[in-house]
User: What shape does this take?
Amino acid sequence: MAENVKPRVRVPRSAAAGEAFEIKSLISHIMESGRRKDSDGNTIPRSIINTFTCDFNGENVITAELHGAISTNPYFQFEATIEEAGTFTFTWLDDDGSVYTDSKDIALA
Amino acid sequence: MNYTRRDALVIGAGAAVAVAMPFRAFAERHADAISAFTGGADVAQTGVELTAPEIAENGNTVPISVAADGASEIIIFAVGNPVPEVIKFTFGPRSGASSAATRCRLAGTQDLIAVAKMADGSFAQATVNVKVTIGGCGG
Assistant: This one.
């Protein structure tokens, strides 16, 4: 398991119904691409976050399929719209089977 | 050693093929991946906006963003990477705009291609060239 994985998301406290607003997410993760070699010439096995999803009240906002070409500490910025107050849930799936989650409440402006 | 004109031509042609072959294989991998995504459908050259720096000093973190009005899926390829796939975004019903930004690794100076699948089933793509000073593959 990758160590010190810490998800961070930024969601506004409130938003107007039907108006798009920005969400940013960052998670600390080494994102080992599987192409690097250690000092003995052995390939370091791939260990990345392969999927990121953001849902709002059970409905999908965005899903991202990640590959080895995504940088260390994957960062995402995207837009969402809401019609009612609720909760955003964020999920990151690791190659090793770990699941990291975070959630943020939002009110209607 | 004396080369005849004919020898020189044969050697030259052989060398040209040897040089071209790995390059072709490299170019085909992302083309295959794109056609697997589009199913061989026509791809329009407008409607997708792919933003990346003209010059990236550090290939380990290259900020990229993509936007395509009405897209349901966007997939990004780095043509010159050992694995051309970079990321695939799927936009759900709560998405505010078919746009997203992230950071990627680039092995060297190369083209980035974004292919978008529109809600009506058509496809569009955009290409951006990025000059990379220090590659980001740690090889």
Remarks:
- Chain A touches chain B at residues 19-21, 33, 35-37, 55-56, 59-72, 74-82 (CB under 8 Å).
- Chain A has one domain: 6-108.
